[in-house]
Structure formats: C-alpha cells, structure tokens
Recover the amino acids of this structure.
C-alpha cells in the first residue's frame, strides 16, 4: 500500500496570504489528523476528520481550518498567514472507525511552510 | 488535566550501551500508549504500543517499552544502542475514558555516539 502523501512538500508564502495543504491517507483509512510541528512548541494537534466530519479540534485560531472529502483526502487551510505559522505540518491517517479504536497513526512526510 | 511528560529534552548514549527514553502520563482512565520516532526531515514512524495485557511490549528496530501502571510510566528501552537510533522520540497517550484525543509528549532527542 502507498503511504500517506502530502503536497506540496515545501512552500514559501508571504505574511497575509493564505495557503492550502493537501493530504492523501493510506487507502482504506478514514481518519485523518493534522499537526503543526515547530522547534519551540513540539507537536501540536490541529484537528481530526472522520468520514468528512471534524471529530476533534485543537487550540488553534479560526484562521486554521480543514475539510475532508468523500474519498478521505483532506485539506487544511491557513488564512492571513503570520510569521509564527512557519512550521512543519504533518498529516496522519488511521484505519480506525471508532474514536477509541487502538490503532496507531501513520504519518506523511509533512509540508514545510515558511512565511516571510 | 491529561498530560504526557518526557522529562529529558536530550539523552546521550554510547553505541552498544543500553538506552532508556522516559515517558510518564496522567490520564483520567485507562490509557493506550504509543512511541513514535522521527528522523530528520521526515514524518513520524510508529514504534510500538501498549493496549492491554503484557506490560512489556516489543516493537520495531529492537525497541521495547514497559508499562508501569503504579508509576504511570511507559519508558522506551533498547539493550544495545546503534548510531542509527539517533533521532527524535515521541511518547503519546490516548485517554480511553475521555474524548479519546491523542496527547503528545514534547519529544526527546536521542544521540548515540560512536
């Protein structure tokens, strides 16, 4: 099976712009989670989608949004970019159906976003 | 409050020596516990997990972890370290009696010196 893919891998944007990142989960996986990783803050949970519905949300401002399509592919959008949004954005998928299923997450390589 | 602590930002070990990366957790119910590894410029890779049963869990690349309920710990171990084990290690816990959200530790940088 192909792994989790994320596009683009690298992105440079200017402050105030918006950006859309894409994630394709492993075939058959219906749960997709997004994380922001920065050297100072570690791994921060953004949100989780399951069957096109947001199931969990982290503590990020409304500038961060996401969605999931019927084929389980997911996108996240950041509007009005700030310098502090520079980070590695990771997507992870799992085959779980219930929130409590004991499956591990499978991560993509990430999208490195630089805001100048 | 639910939390995961990795008390060491960095662990230095000589190649061939045993290694331990520490993780403690605080959740309101029964936990599912996970260890992941991240190599430079890569996403995270799953190493092992504890769901139930035997407290000693074996995982990928020769790693193992011991679940200790009384000490609320889930330390990652390996009998003989390799230089290639140098990476960033994350512990995570899913609280099964709460909203099932995965809670992550801050990560521990493991450096194996030849």
């Amino acid at each position: 099976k192909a792994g989790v893919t994320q596009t683009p891998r690298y992105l440079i944007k200017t402050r105030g712009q918006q950006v859309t990142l894409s994630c394709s989960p492993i075939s058959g996986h219906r749960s997709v989670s997004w994380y922001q990783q920065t050297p100072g803050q570690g791994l921060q949970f953004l949100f989780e989608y399951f069957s096109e519905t947001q199931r969990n949300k982290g503590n990020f401002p409304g500038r961060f949004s996401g969605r999931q399509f019927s084929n389980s592919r997911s996108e996240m959008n950041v509007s009005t970019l700030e310098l502090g949004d520079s980070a590695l954005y990771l997507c992870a998928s799992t085959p779980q159906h219930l929130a409590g299923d004991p499956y591990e997450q499978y991560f993509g390589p990430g999208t490195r976003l630089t805001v100048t | 409050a639910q939390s995961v602590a990795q008390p060491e930002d960095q662990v230095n070990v000589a190649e061939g020596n045993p290694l331990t990366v520490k993780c403690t957790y605080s959740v309101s119910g029964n936990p599912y516990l996970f260890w992941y590894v991240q190599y430079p410029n890569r996403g995270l890779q799953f190493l092992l997990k504890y769901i139930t049963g035997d407290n000693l869990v074996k995982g990928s690349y020769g790693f193992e972890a011991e679940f200790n309920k009384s000490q609320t710990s889930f330390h990652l171990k390996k009998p003989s370290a390799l230089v290639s084990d140098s990476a960033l290690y994350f512990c995570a816990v899913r609280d099964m009696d709460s909203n099932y959200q995965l809670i992550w530790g801050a990560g521990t940088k493991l450096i194996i010196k030849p």
